[in-house]
Amino acid sequence: MHLGTVTLAFLAAIASIHASKSEVEIQIDHAVECERRTQKGDKVYVHYRGSLKDGGKEFDNSYDRGKPLDFVVGEGHVIKGWDQNLMGMCIGDKRTLTIPPEFGYGNSKVGPIPASSTLVFITELVGIQGVDAPEVKASSSAPNIVDKVAESVKTAASEAKKVAEAILVDAVDGDQEHMEL
């Protein structure tokens, strides 16, 4: 019986170690089509909001400062969760990164961030040094509202003309009495 308890404790320890080896979750909030995506060695400009997954308390926000963070991707200047997961983005892309401690600050307390915290960053790539922003293309499938309204007015006017002509024909014939509506 004692051996069973030790075995279960050992298996539970292995499972908890395996469970802690989680990965960064990436949610694409806004995707842009482009020819040039971020790659290792690019100097990038990123706006972000950082918060704790537990409780949602915001600890940093580049929008409030009015200036995006700039750094070279893939060279270890930022936490691993950013370094590895901001590659392959187009200027204008927005991603939400949920970063476990192993890819964030680990067991260290950093400023208002408690040790072993899972972090949530809402990120927006606003620039890549030396790369022009892609042109925003209007969706060809999106209907032009002005054309739709103009067509509706034209159709309504045509139908009103037909009704008016029918009333005039009836009035000219004089065979029918005028009735109040």
From TrEMBL:
Job of this protein: PPIases accelerate the folding of proteins. It catalyzes the cis-trans isomerization of proline imidic peptide bonds in oligopeptides.
PPIase FKBP-type domain ranges (all copies): 41-129
InterPro entries, alphabetized: FKBP2/11 (IPR044609), PPIase_dom_sf (IPR046357), PPIase_FKBP_dom (IPR001179)
Reaction catalysed by this enzyme: [protein]-peptidylproline (omega=180) = [protein]-peptidylproline (omega=0)
EC numbers, comma separated: 5.2.1.8
GO cellular component: endoplasmic reticulum
Signal peptide start-end: 1-19
Protein name (record): peptidylprolyl isomerase
A UniProt-annotated Pfam family: FKBP_C
Nucleus as UniProt keyword: no
Keywords noted in UniProt: Isomerase, Rotamase, Signal
Molecular function GO terms recorded: peptidyl-prolyl cis-trans isomerase activity
Upper lineage: Eukaryota, Fungi, Dikarya, Ascomycota, Pezizomycotina
Species this protein is from: Blumeria hordei (Barley powdery mildew)
